[in-house]
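Session log. Operator J.P. requested a structure for one protein chain; no other inputs attached. Running the standard single-chain path with token output.
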Amino acid sequence: MDRLERTSRNKIQMAIRAGAIKVDDEAGSPNFKIKPGHVITMFLPKVPVDQRQIVAEDIPLDIRYEDDDLLVLHKPPGMVVHPGIGVHSGTLVNALAFHYNKDQLPTLEGNIVERPGLVHRIDKDTSGLMVVAKTE
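Structure written below.
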């Protein structure tokens, strides 16, 4: 992790689980202890543009409040927020795209269409209320 700029521990763990990082040509687990002499190889392919598009999916949302500016929902445990390495569907972003009846979530100026600007620190297994800003 110390040798990869702008890469989070979570992204590295997801890449290991997806089989993109190996130690001595063997798939490992995120808690594997690296020792001197191990050879670490990484294959982090660039996702094709057509796979980065957010696909609207009819996934039920537990909406607690919504108005013109924001939406408050309960994120269940087990749901990933953004599509990413090894997870291209079934995410909260896919469900929100369906809720808005569009192929894409509203995208504010400065955000790329493939990565809607949900700012969060909530992992797959964490549940709780999330506030989704719909306007600047």
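Operator note: The CA atoms of residues 111 and 117 lie 6 Å apart.
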